[in-house]
């Protein structure tokens, strides 16, 4: 028999359970623990009643007496007066009732703790998802999507399950305590021997289980690696196909999977030893106890056969209980790392403090101003330096320049996807860091080249986040975006489901869909980042036309490689390595014969 108590819990490894289980109704948990306790109590009672019952049946006694507790005196008197048959019948009834109650409370305990477990998992998943939603762009630059999905899908479940296992542990420990208490009443000496034996075996087993720990850790880690790999490979399936690297991926995956298999084999081989060893130790110690009790207690008349039978019964019943404790303990140890991972997700807000500013953004009246803006993604290399730019209300400013010059970076600083490292961005003289970012973003529309199409209908894609949008509004937005035409030709028009990532649509169609989405929100500030670079000239013309319409009565920052897109802008800004090298109108810049002029020449030659 193996009793293995929980290891000393290192609270830092648990990452404060309070953080994890905050805001979950604890009543079911308390109810569950209470029921567990009652269940153990009735279990103990059942076993305690077995001795007199056995003695009665074996004919060692004729009447039944309860321990003298004062109030039991009159009850004992009454019992004495009953015949043996009545007593046996009574004993049977009480035993059966006690067994039923034990089962009932066991069930309730399970039901309640499972309810708590699921509620806690659900709450965790929700909180974690919210945290990920609000995490800044910066976080996503450095975190694998696979890790996040894994945390949301698996790790929270592990944490929840651990709660379940903890309650199993608790039930089992209580049950064992009830057994030991019963044994103590019969013979403290024998109980002492058993407890010492159990402890020695438990200690030996815990040493062994601890050595298993590193195998368990490795299995879990490799499992995570594997799921991240799967997600990454499949999200890049287009690249895989395009480069014909299926075989390469297949072999790479196979290697990972094989490593995982080996690690699991190692772990399981070690685990297989536990069961037979437990059995051996249990039976061995059982035999020892039997022989010892016979020589030292029964022969001396200190113990009778009924009591010895009870001991054996308790020993046998203890085996599954201790095995449950062992398993639960192993599971909890195995999954402590899940606690750390989930807690890390919940602490994102500490790591990435929420953006400052709480003034609602009321609208742009005069101008957006970049003042001496410096920016770095990693704190080392500067991407923008001394960037000074004014975008007056209602005007269109175009950013052009070679790849990597920092154009998209400028565009992502305005909606505060990132915060400037030095200098400031002001709207009507107010630093945007004073503004509530969500309210600011409500007024900014962004159309980038990398348009995301949701797995939903065309209508839902355009009216994304605007449940009250009417079909007329959506249609009007689509018309303005030059998207209505092609939507009409889709099998179910606006109700056509555009599949996973909208692959059924062409690049230009997706682009126009995303322009319609932006238009519907009617933002007063518009950022168009390379909105036409992926399109053929016909789609480009359509998108271009849509953009021209969008510009009307709006403040626009347009980024483009193709200078044809930007020639109508009020101001064209040429960037190089994070700085502005030229600014002015199209004709003016051409006349200067500088960077813009040479760009322009390159493109006209290319065409
Ligand atoms: N999320 C990011 N994390 C770290 N560095 C980044 C990130 N995004 C861009 N950079 C770096 O910042 C620099 C400017 O990038 P940016 O995307 O602003 O250029 P761009 O002018 O828009 O180029 P392109 O015309 O190719 O779109 C590049 O050197 C790039 O490597
Ligand atoms: Mg860019």
TrEMBL record:
| Listed SUPFAM superfamilies | ABC transporter transmembrane region, P-loop containing nucleoside triphosphate hydrolases
Task: Tell me the superkingdom of the source.
Answer: Bacteria
Q: Which residues form the ABC transporter domain?
A: 368-602
| A Gene Ontology BP annotation from the UniProt entry | transmembrane transport
Give the residue spans that cross the bilayer: 29-54, 87-107, 163-184, 190-209, 277-296
Record's bilayer topology term:
Multi-pass membrane protein
Enumerate the UniProt keywords alphabetically.
Answer: ATP-binding, Membrane, Nucleotide-binding, Transmembrane, Transmembrane helix
Q: Which SMART domains match?
A: AAA (SM00382)
UniProt entry tagged with the keyword Heme: no
Q: What is this protein called?
A: HlyB/MsbA family ABC transporter
């Amino acid at each position: 028999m193996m009793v293995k108590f929980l290891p000393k819990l290192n609270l830092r490894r648990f990452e404060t359970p309070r953080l994890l289980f905050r805001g979950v109704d604890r009543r079911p948990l308390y109810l569950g623990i209470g029921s567990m306790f009652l269940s153990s109590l009735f279990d103990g009672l059942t076993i305690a009643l077995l001795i007199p019952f056995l003695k009665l049946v074996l004919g060692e006694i004729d009447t039944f007496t309860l321990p003298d507790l004062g109030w039991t005196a009159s009850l004992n008197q009454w019992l004495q007066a009953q015949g043996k048959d009545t007593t046996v019948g009574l004993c049977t009834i009480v035993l059966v009732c006690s067994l039923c109650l034990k089962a009932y409370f066991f069930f309730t305990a399970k039901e309640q703790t499972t309810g708590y477990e699921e509620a806690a998992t659900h709450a965790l998943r929700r909180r974690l998802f919210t945290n990920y939603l609000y995490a800044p762009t910066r976080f996503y630059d450095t975190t694998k999507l696979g890790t996040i999905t894994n945390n949301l899908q698996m790790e929270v479940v592990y944490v929840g399950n651990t709660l379940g296992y903890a309650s199993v542990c608790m039930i089992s420990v209580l049950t064992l305590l009830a057994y030991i208490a019963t044994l103590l009443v019969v013979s403290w000496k024998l109980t002492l021997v058993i407890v010492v034996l159990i402890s020695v075996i438990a200690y030996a087993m815990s040493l062994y289980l601890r050595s298993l720990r590193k195998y368990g850790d490795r299995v879990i880690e490799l499992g995570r690696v594997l799921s991240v790999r799967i997600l990454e490979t499949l999200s890049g399936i287009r690249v895989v196909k395009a480069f014909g690297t299926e075989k390469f991926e297949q072999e790479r995956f196979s290697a990972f999977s094989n490593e995982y298999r080996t690690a699991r084999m190692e772990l399981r081989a070690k685990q297989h030893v536990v069961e037979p060893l437990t059995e051996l130790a249990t039976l061995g110690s059982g035999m020892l106890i039997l022989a010892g009790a016979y020589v030292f207690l029964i022969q001396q008349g200190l113990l009778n056969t009924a009591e010895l039978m009870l001991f054996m019964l308790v020993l046998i019943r203890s085996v599954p209980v201790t095995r449950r404790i062992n398993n639960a303990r192993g599971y909890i140890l195995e999954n402590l790392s899940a606690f750390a991972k989930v807690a890390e997700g919940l602490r994102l807000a500490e790591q990435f403090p929420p953006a400052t500013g709480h003034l609602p953004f009321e609208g742009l009246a005069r101008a957006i101003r970049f003042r001496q803006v410096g920016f770095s993604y990693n704190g080392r290399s500067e991407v923008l330096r001394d960037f000074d730019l004014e975008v007056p209300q209602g005007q269109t400013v175009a950013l052009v320049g070679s790849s990597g010059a920092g154009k998209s970076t400028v565009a992502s600083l305005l909606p505060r996807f990132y915060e400037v490292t030095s200098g400031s961005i002001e709207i009507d003289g107010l630093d945007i860091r004073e503004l509530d970012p969500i309210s600011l973003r409500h007024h900014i529309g962004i159309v980038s080249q990398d348009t995301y199409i949701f797995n939903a209908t065309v209508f839902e894609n355009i009216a994304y986040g605007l449940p009250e949008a009417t079909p007329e509004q959506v249609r009007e937005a689509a018309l303005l975006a030059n998207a209505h035409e092609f939507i009409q030709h889709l099998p179910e028009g606006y109700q056509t489901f555009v599949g996973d990532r909208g692959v059924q649509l062409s690049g230009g169609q997706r682009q126009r869909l995303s322009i319609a989405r932006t238009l519907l929100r009617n933002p007063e500030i518009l950022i168009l980042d390379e909105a036409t670079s992926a399109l053929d000239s016909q789609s480009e013309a359509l998108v271009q036309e849509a953009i021209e319409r969008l510009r009307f009565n709006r403040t626009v920052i347009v980024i483009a490689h193709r200078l044809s897109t930007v020639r109508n802008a009020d101001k064209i800004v040429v960037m190089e390595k994070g700085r502005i090298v030229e600014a002015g109108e199209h004709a003016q810049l051409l006349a200067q014969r500088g960077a813009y002029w040479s760009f322009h020449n390159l493109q006209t030659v290319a065409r």
